[in-house]
Each structure stands twice: as C-alpha cells, then as structure tokens.
Write a structure and sequence with these properties.
Keywords: Coiled coil. The protein is 76% helix and 0% strand. By secondary structure, the protein is an all-alpha fold. It has a domain of 71 residues. The chain is rod-shaped, with a radius of gyration of 65 Å.
Length: 203
C-alpha cells in the first residue's frame, strides 16, 4: 500500500516514523514543504523531518532521540556534498561510457564505409583493367587481320607477277629475234647442196 503522508501526520506514530524508508521520508518532507534534495542521505532527511515535526508539535521531543546527534551540521554538509559528488561522478561516468560507445559505433561505421569504398575502388580498378585488356586484345586481333590481309595481297601480287613473267617467256617474238636467223645466200646454198650430194655418192 502506498504511503500517505497526510494520513500519517494525522495519526503520527513515533515507532512507525522510525521505520520509514527513505522514499517515504521524501514524500513526508515534500508534504511538509521542506528545503531538501532527494539526493540527500536518508538520515539527513530524517533529521530535517524530525525538527519540523517537533517544532510543529506533531511529534514530542522524544522524537529528537531518533536524530543522529554525533554528526554535526558541518559533517552533515560534508557528507551531503560527498554524496552529491559521487552521484555527479556516476553521472559523468555514465555519460563517458555512453559517449565511448557512440564513438566506438561511429568508428565501426566509418571503418565499414572505408572497407566498402576500398572494395568499390578495387572492383572499379579490376573492371578498368579488364576493359583495357579486352581493348588491347581487340586491337591485337585487328592488327593480325590487317597483317594477314597485307600478306594475302602481297602473295596475290607476287603470283600475278610470276604469271606475267611466265607468259612472256613462253611467247616467241619473231620480229625481235629475226637477227638470229642467218641471211639467205642462193650461191652458197647451191654449193652446200653439191657437197652434200658428193658425200652421199662416195658413201
């Protein structure tokens, strides 16, 4: 059952008050409109509530025995400051841990982006390399085809030239070679015939 500060103040119980938890003391202090902080130690809040209840005659002076008298105001303030400092340190530590986690996450994201960029660059370089290799192979193939065509043309020209030379060698030009035929002499031919007949008769 939730603690009801107003109901408690109507029927205050010293033993019940002494057994109140910090959360219940906080509700009671808020109901009494005391100047305090929730971060204060339980005993400090309890002492403030006791002083208020005794001053308002809600509790008798015997309630003052529940206060921790061996702690003076300076010590209480010191403890309060130490407690606040610890809370602040804890808050700062949590913020630092959160920031560290965020930085780690950002670092991992940046690392992932870098790896992705490197992979894309590598793929792009490989594609460029393949395109250049394909282009080089195509140029080499075209060059070979041109060389084959040139070679074929040369062979055709050579074959045509050989054919012309052969045709020229088989053709006998009488006009050009007439000078090789000895001049005809009728007297000389008669003598030659006479000598030939004489040889036949002797045989």
């Amino acid at each position: 059952m939730a603690f009801d500060a107003g109901k408690f103040l109507k029927t205050p119980d010293l033993e019940g008050f002494d057994n109140l938890k910090k959360e219940e003391l906080v509700l009671l202090a808020q109901h009494l409109k005391l100047d305090f902080k929730v971060s204060m130690r339980k005993q400090i809040i309890k002492n403030l509530v006791i002083d208020k209840l005794v001053d308002a005659e809600i509790l008798g002076e015997e309630a003052l025995e529940l206060k921790v008298e061996n702690i003076d105001a300076f010590k209480l303030k010191q403890l309060e400051l130490e407690h606040e400092l610890k809370l602040k340190e804890l808050e700062i530590r949590k913020e630092d841990e959160l920031k560290l986690k965020q930085d780690e996450l950002k670092f991992k994201q940046d690392e992932l982006k870098l790896k992705q960029a490197e992979l894309e660059m590598k793929e792009r370089l490989e594609m460029d390399k393949k395109e250049k290799e394909d282009e080089l192979k195509l140029k080499e193939l075209e060059m070979r085809e041109r060389l084959e065509m040139e070679k074929l043309k040369l062979e055709m020209v050579k074959e045509e030239s050989n054919t012309k030379v052969q045709l020229k060698s088989e053709y006998f030009d009488a006009a050009k070679n007439i000078r090789l035929v000895p001049r005809f002499c009728e007297k000389k031919q008669s003598i030659n015939i006479f000598h030939s007949l004489r040889k036949l008769l002797i045989i």
